[in-house]
């Protein structure tokens, strides 16, 4: 059966795009960014990082130039940002869907980015970082997802190891660590392939 994963994180610039490229490469999956705020977009980045020929890169759902929260970018550019305007692309392949920022980033006055995951019935993967303060940001995110009955497939750590942080996050959440992406000098096709090998057996 084709997997449908929604990649979220504890914030912005957390490594969602990097991890989405890894997962696309591991599963030869398609990629889709339903809401892009800020250009050039993540779809171009993932396209340049993925090596396999099967992955397709779908047109973004809503594209905004302003690098801001989608609700603010939409207001500024006078574009309606809403769930209703976002349509799941057609594919029989696995699909990796990348959110924007974290779970409660607003699309508008009522809707949030995580509502996209709910609407398309995708399994959520949370990218967590390991800076001081990230335990709280991660546990708040996971607690909100659990309280709202949104299933989480697992956690991906991105950054320099911090065993105390990683252990307490895994222990409190009861979730599986799917992958640890270390801080690399540069993220290129080579690094993406290396991590794709590591996650393939876990997914
Ligand atoms: N492990 C890593 N090693 C080196 N650079 C990294 C690593 N993870 C992320 N980066 C770099 O950090 C920047 C932010 O990462 P990324 O674009 O994946 O974040 P994001 O969560 O997708 O952000 P957004 O919310 O804008 O979609 C990028 O330039 C990326 O190449
Ligand atoms: C511009 C950025 N790279 C993302 N596209 C959008 C991040 C929105 C974050 C909103 C917030 O949590 O304050
Ligand atoms: Mg991104």
Automatic annotation (TrEMBL):
GO MF entry, a single one: magnesium ion binding
Binding site for Mg(2+): 17, 98
Cofactor: Mg(2+)
Record keywords: ATP-binding, Biotin biosynthesis, Cytoplasm, Ligase, Magnesium, Metal-binding, Nucleotide-binding
SUPFAM superfamilies per the UniProt record, alphabetical: P-loop containing nucleoside triphosphate hydrolases (SSF52540)
Associated pathway: Cofactor biosynthesis; biotin biosynthesis; biotin from 7,8-diaminononanoate: step 1/2
Gene Ontology process terms (BP): biotin biosynthetic process
Pfam families: AAA_26 (PF13500)
Entry-linked HAMAP family: BioD
The protein, known as: ATP-dependent dethiobiotin synthetase BioD
Species of origin: Mangrovivirga cuniculi
Name of the gene encoding the protein in the UniProt record: bioD
């Amino acid at each position: 059966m084709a997997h449908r994963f929604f990649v979220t994180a504890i914030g912005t610039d957390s490594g969602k795009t990097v991890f989405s490229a890894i997962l696309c490469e591991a599963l030869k999956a398609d990629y889709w960014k339903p809401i892009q705020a800020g250009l050039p977009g993540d779809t171009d980045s993932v396209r340049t990082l993925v090596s396999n020929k099967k992955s397709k890169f779908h047109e973004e759902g809503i594209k905004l130039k302003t690098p801001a929260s989608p609700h603010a970018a939409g207001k500024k550019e006078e574009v309606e940002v809403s769930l209703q305007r976002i349509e799941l692309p057609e594919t029989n392949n696995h699909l990796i869907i990348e959110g924007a920022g974290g779970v409660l980033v607003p699309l508008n006055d009522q809707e949030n980015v995580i509502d996209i995951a709910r609407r398309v019935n995708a399994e959520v993967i949370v990218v967590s970082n390991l800076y001081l303060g990230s335990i709280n940001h991660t546990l708040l995110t996971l607690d909100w997802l659990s309280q709202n009955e949104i299933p989480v497939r697992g956690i991906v750590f991105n950054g320099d190891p911090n065993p105390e942080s990683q252990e307490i996050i895994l222990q409190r959440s009861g979730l599986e660590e799917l992958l640890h992406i270390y801080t690399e000098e540069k993220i290129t096709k080579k690094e993406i392939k290396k991590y794709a090998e590591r996650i393939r057996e876990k997914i």
